[in-house]
Design brief:
With 95 residues, this protein is α+β, with helices and mostly antiparallel strands. It has a single domain, classed as SH3 type barrels (Roll). It contains 2 helices and 5 strands, in the order βββββαα. It has a 5-stranded antiparallel sheet with strand order 3-2-1-4-5, with helices on one face.
């Protein structure tokens, strides 16, 4: 399963934004995002592309859900495993 991960835009340089995901900053392409973004906006990221700008309240709700999933220790919880996998992959790619 692939997840769209919300993050907060820190900086925009043309079609590339620096986005903060749980303290990890990554470069995200803006080629396909549905509307212009500015620092402070939240975007939904999927495989390195911002696919849409999202309201802060929606991002906060999603981040709270992800935090809850990460706190789970239930064996076989595929959603929690997916969230952990996404974060692990992002951290492995950290410069």
């Amino acid at each position: 399963m692939c997840l769209g991960v919300p993050g907060r835009v820190v900086e925009v340089d043309g079609l590339v934004a620096t986005v903060d995901f749980w303290g990890l900053r990554k470069q995200v392409r803006l080629d396909v995002v549905d509307s212009p973004v500015s620092p402070g906006d939240y975007v939904l990221n999927h495989v390195g592309f911002a696919i849409r700008r999202i309201p802060a309240s929606e991002a906060e709700d999603t981040l709270a859900l992800y935090s809850e999933l990460l706190a789970r220790e239930t064996p076989g919880d595929l959603m929690a495993a997916d969230v952990r996998g996404e974060l692990d992959a992002a951290h492995r790619g950290k410069p």
